[in-house]
Amino acid sequence: VAELASERGLAVISDEVYDRAVYSGCEFTSMLAFPDLGENLFYVQSFSKTYSMAGFRLGYLVVPENVFALCSRIQRTISGPLNLAVQHAALAALRTDESWLADRRTELEARRDAVVVALSAAAETRVVRPEAGLFTWLQHAPRYSTSQLTASAKDSGVLIRAGSEFGAAGEGCVAVSFAVGGEELEVGLARLIKVLENLHTGATG
Ligand SMILES: Cc1ncc(COP(=O)(O)O)c(C=O)c1O
After folding, report:
1. In angstroms, rounded to a whole number, what is the distance separating the alpha carbons of residues 60 and 90?
2. Using one digit for the tens of pLDDT, what is the confidence trace for 143-152?
3. Greatest Cα-to-Cα distance within the chain, rounded to the nearest angstrom
4. Cα–Cα distance between 140 and 122 in angstroms, integer?
5. Does pTM surpass 0.85?
6. What is the Å distance from ligand 1's center to 17 Cα?
7. CA–CA distance, 41 with 71 (Å, rounded to integer)
8. Disulfide engineering: 118 pairs with which of 21, 106, 189, 195, CB 3.0-4.6 Å?
């Protein structure tokens, strides 16, 4: 991508929020490793995923100087200044020794595997084994709609994200998160599988 973009002078928006949740067998290369991209690189980073600070509205961009003011205006309008507690949390995150990240990655990888194994056993589904990140994509049977699946899952106390929220091409898929683990994940998976089986057999409830 970097080569192609450099050759053709294309801009690249590189969202690298999952750079610390990359699983075994996969090598991650940041777009920052390609200086030839120069002013054409828009690098996106967040504290949400690495430091479990989702909702804190804290992240940063590395962008060309000429678009900085525009980005800053958007940021000011949408989320405004960050409160002091969030700033202290961010400082603590940055100053804490990062050795814990390796254990966290191992834990996330085990969750990823558990989710993939469990959901692969459900009838008429295909599951993507993600190489990074906190979600897996589940493709469900076409005999029911994605919104039927998300609504039934919600009724069972499980929130999953419809692929169609990301565009029409996402119909037929749902995103299943493994941001939580342990018993909560086990219970959620068992309920979701039950929902899938019920929709598969045409039962209600
Ligand atoms: C790929 C990706 N980029 C960015 C974000 C947004 O993170 P933030 O919490 O900083 O808005 C998400 C959140 O789910 C994500 O999955």
Report:
1. 12
2. 999 999 999 9
3. 58
4. 9
5. yes
6. 7
7. 14
8. 189
